[in-house]
């Protein structure tokens, strides 16, 4: 009798183990749960100090890890800036997939607290090595403060993991006129280059959160489309020429394609126009791997003032005829304010309407001290000069506007009298990282 009871207990125990295994395997897919199941029986590895666990296969699981993990130990080196070694070509802080959620109650104060090494204006440099790349992040913005908060929460540590010298610029469109994303990006390029000699400029939608820090925010030999796999498209590229969401250009690449169009008011069309410009500028589109260029979109409804542009398809059909006369060479705007905030530089601009830069009489604001109009001189529909900076080599440049970066360097907006190609000037930029 006792032997029979012992057999029953053994069978019940085996059945219980099987039920537990089946329950684990049924959760969110077989492969993912097998990894989870075997991890239960794996002895945890001993910690080897602050840098332990920053690389290895355990970081590349499907669930991802906290983007702030292992950043708290970073501190300033006890040597002068001149004696800092260069950062390694591949950052040891990069770990792969990032776990992205949108917690309620998040505040900018908390984001600031979690990023103590970010200085005013949203600037950061690695504290213990000299960055190999200088990247500016340009975010077109209006009435998206809630989304901006989450993007800053993830983007700052994401960029710090890549050991970049970076700054974040939020280009805020003043007023309630129809939104113009591409023109704001033209503004962002010019105003960012006035402050620093950036190697690379990333143009970043405010509602897209990167999910893998191996998606490096540095430029490529060709214009880079970073957001190749968004969750709203099932983590697939919607079509071959798509260039929306998050993209990156060197200053030279930007000039070759005459920047971005200024005439797409409202939602849609400008991404495809930009993709066409890449081809017309004699360039290809570079992309990261599909499993690396992953982004999660913050769900939202279409914004008021950003209604679908009904003219977008007609405009796209004419891009080949209009791209040389509509772009960085015709971008006109007025700077309303520039604020160097703890987490980003906020530049508020008046970019006008479809009828032009001039304000309507009913809504015209009084002149403000320090307000200035910006734009590049235009003659006959083509550029009379192009924006370049003191790194441009091999061209005669006339110094027109000298500004200080606040770091002991001087930068210029200049008219570059370069050889003209296709109706506008192009330049060769030296010392650009690819």
UniProtKB/TrEMBL annotation:
Pfam families: Glyco_transf_7C, Glyco_transf_7N. SUPFAM superfamilies: Nucleotide-diphospho-sugar transferases. One of its GO terms (molecular function) is metal ion binding. It catalyses: N-acetyl-D-glucosamine + UDP-alpha-D-galactose = beta-D-galactosyl-(1->4)-N-acetyl-D-glucosamine + UDP + H(+). Pathway: Protein modification; protein glycosylation. GO terms for biological process: carbohydrate metabolic process. Its EC number is 2.4.1.-. Residues 225-301 form the Galactosyltransferase C-terminal domain. It comes from the Eukaryota. Keywords: Disulfide bond, Glycoprotein, Glycosyltransferase, Golgi apparatus, Manganese, Membrane, Metal-binding, Signal-anchor, Transferase, Transmembrane, Transmembrane helix. Residues 87-220 form the Galactosyltransferase N-terminal domain. Responsible for the synthesis of complex-type N-linked oligosaccharides in many glycoproteins as well as the carbohydrate moieties of glycolipids. Belongs to the glycosyltransferase 7 family. This is Beta-1,4-galactosyltransferase. It comes from Anguilla anguilla (European freshwater eel).
